[in-house]
């Protein structure tokens, strides 16, 4: 029995309309929910966002002329560092206007994803946890292992500081703060604090995000018309 394409899309992507089927809507909504799943498959009870699903959606949204902007809805606890950075780099390289909205939380590797959009909102009650990069599983106790960890952490720091208004010293200070997180090193910032630090552009909700995205779409339309002429 053939499977319903809408049901298949819901199971694979968590929504009925994929970038190839905009259904008259010029804005594509990209939800990034739960834990970012990378090269290792997480247990079935974990709610995850698979990076191998996100990347094709971004490619399709970039290529679809009917889609004029991308709205990223973010509520994640973090996850695989390289997969999260890959998603963040893809969002940052999209040529169409992108606006992100942090709901609930944008923790750990969710911070680079949050700042990768052209403009980012965070709700008042949402939080963001900033902490050092950690490794899980077998770690060989040699200097090269710690050098690799430091280089990966530098990649995260460079990306966040180059796509937001926070300075590198301030971001590293938040990342290495002691005494705030019970079982970790780092800082937990709420919506308004995230804006004060320069991580996020503004406090707002869904309506604010959509209005900002539509404004950026309108600004970009004359450029496209000039190219066509």
Would you write up a description of this structure?
By secondary structure, the protein is α/β, with parallel strands linked by helices. It is built from eight helices and eight strands; from the N terminus they run αββαβαβαββααβαβα. Helix 2 packs parallel to helix 3.
Keywords:
229 residues
The major β-sheet equals:
6 strands, parallel
Order of helices and strands: HEEHEHEHEEHHEHEH
**3D shape:** globular
Instruction: Quote the distance from N terminus to C terminus.
Output: 49 Å
Number of strands: 8
Q: Structural class of the helix and strand makeup?
A: alpha/beta
Task: Give, in spatial order, the strands making up the sheet with the most strands.
Answer: 2-1-3-4-5-8
Strand content: 15-25%
What is the number of helical segments per DSSP (H or I, 4+ residues)?
Answer: 8
Radius of gyration: 18 Å
Q: Could you provide a short overview of the structure?
A:
This protein is an alpha/beta fold and 229 residues long. The protein has eight helices and eight strands, in the order αββαβαβαββααβαβα.
């Amino acid at each position: 029995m053939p499977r319903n394409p809408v049901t298949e899309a819901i199971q694979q992507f968590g929504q009925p309309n994929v970038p190839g089927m905009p259904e008259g809507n010029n804005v594509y909504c990209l939800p990034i929910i739960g834990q970012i799943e990378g090269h290792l498959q997480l247990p079935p009870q974990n709610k995850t966002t698979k990076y191998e699903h996100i990347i094709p959606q971004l490619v399709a949204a970039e290529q679809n002329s009917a889609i004029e902007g991308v709205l990223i809805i973010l509520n994640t606890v973090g996850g695989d560092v390289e997969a999260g950075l890959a998603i963040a780099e893809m969002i940052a390289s999209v040529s169409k206007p992108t606006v992100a909205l942090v709901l609930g939380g944008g923790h750990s590797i969710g911070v680079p994803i949050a700042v990768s959009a052209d403009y980012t909102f965070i709700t008042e009650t949402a939080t963001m946890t900033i902490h050092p990069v950690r490794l899980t599983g077998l770690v060989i106790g040699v200097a090269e292992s710690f050098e690799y960890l430091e280089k990966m952490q530098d990649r995260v720091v460079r990306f966040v500081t180059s796509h937001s208004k926070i300075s590198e010293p301030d971001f590293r200070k938040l990342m290495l703060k002691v005494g705030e997180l019970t079982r970790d090193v780092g800082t937990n910032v709420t919506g308004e604090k995230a804006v004060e630090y320069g991580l996020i552009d503004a406090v707002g909700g869904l309506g604010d995000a959509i209005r900002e995205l539509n404004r950026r779409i309108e600004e970009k339309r004359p450029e496209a018309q000039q190219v066509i002429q």
